[in-house]
Amino acid sequence: MEIKPEKSGYGFDTQRLRAGYEPKEHNYAVSPPIYQTAAFDFRDVEHAKALFGIRELGNLYTRIGNPTVGVLEQRIAALDHASGAVALSSGMAAISYTLLNLAEGGGRILTSPYLYGGSADSFKKIYPKFGITFDIAQNILNPEKLAEEIKPDTKAIYVESISNPSAVLLDIDAIAKVAHDHGIPLVVDNTVATPYLYNPIDHGADIVVYSATKGLTGHGNVIAGLVLESGKFNWKSDKFPQFSELYYTLRDIDENWRSFLDVFPLAPFTGRIRFNYLNYFGAALSPFDAYLVLIGLETLSERIAKQVHNAEVLADYLSKHEAVEWVRYPTLKDSPSHDLAKRDFPRGTGGILSFGFKGTTAQRETFLNSVELFHYHVNIGDARSLIVNSPQTTHGELEAHEKVVADIPENLIRISAGLEDVSDLIADLEQAFKKALA
Ligand SMILES: *Cc1c(COP(=O)(O)O)cnc(C)c1O
Question: What pLDDT is attached to residue 7?
Fold first, then answer.
């Protein structure tokens, strides 16, 4: 939906509790109700016509919109300074609908090499079958040279604000400028950062995607995704005729066809995802899951702040450990991302850190088998601390040379810091190191 501007001027912490929801519109319920219904009655035939022509935005069928899901869309849009938002049933749905909406019918996407494993795999293996091909940028860390890598049919640049697992930071402002100089949008996956740590739209991003499964919800109990847009990109160009084309579904009162730009001037991108991809491909978020994300958002700031604290302490502990070859965490002094961390991340750089285990493969495996408090699995952003050997799991599909480009050495172990007492986390790692090295 196009987003109602927040009249409040409230700060971030107030908005994550209040934006997009008025108790008086919902029987004065304090907590947003779960509208667990598949469909909504029409008032009369005129109302049905108006809803079907998308002349009036209202509740029709939960696959394309639902009041509980709508609160989540409004709330995240307020936190991210977005003009439009659409919630989907997973982060992968958010990414796939975004890429199809940009490059359906064929085109190229220029990407960062530092990507989530599921993104990297699908970009290589699935999208080319739909005519969408990916160029992995050589110069993502040197945006002044990035322009050379944009081809005539490049439709967008795609990056992660904090990459997973290596926590690489990028100069999003500079990359956005290169994209805009070439008339293409910048898409940022902001999953690891969350809007608490980083606002991609304020730094020039045109589209933001999230896996809300991770830090946004923060309790490891839901799979959800979101797409947001800035409302600033010029979609009228010849590169993106899909936003100016007239559609049968978008009829005015005289039954004339209209375009997504006519109907959603401030949110054509998410409007088109909703009424094309969500409507017809169908990865709808359930109202109950939207509710869980909303509950998670209520404590976003406190959770992420504590995760940042725990990650910083763990990074410091690991940097001094004899069984650790290296540690990657952006605020460490020797990190290549250190300057960007200082410039763009005043609240810290999140809960993800990784380290190189110094020892044999067997010792590394004993180490992982010996952790007791850390959970050994592939999620991130949970309230519980998680540990995983990314190169053999989440990024196991990458070939050896691709792991080099993505900077994922075989001995990498990734940690997603949770909310426990950090002394307990350190004690757990310490006993696991002892067992591994015994
Ligand atoms: C987990 C993740 C995704 C995919 O999200 P799902 O909700 O699991 O589908 C996309 N991007 C990043 C950075 C992720 O960590």
Answer: 61
Any domain includes 133: yes
> Does the beta carbon of 20 lie inside 6 Å of ligand 1?
no
The number of domains in the chain is: 2
Torsion of CA 156, 157, 160, 165, to 10 degrees: 110
Rounded average pLDDT over 212-235: 98
Domain housing 57: 12-297
Distances, alpha carbon 240 to alpha carbons 98, 155, 325, 342, in Å: 13, 8, 47, 36
State in Å: Cα 208 to ligand 1 middle.
Answer: 13
Q: Decide: 230 and 83 in contact? Cβ < 8 Å.
A: yes
255 assigned to some structural domain: yes
* CA 191 / ligand 1 centre spacing (Å): 7
Among the listed ranges 36-40, 55-59, 106-110, 357-361, which one has the minimum average pLDDT value?
A: 55-59
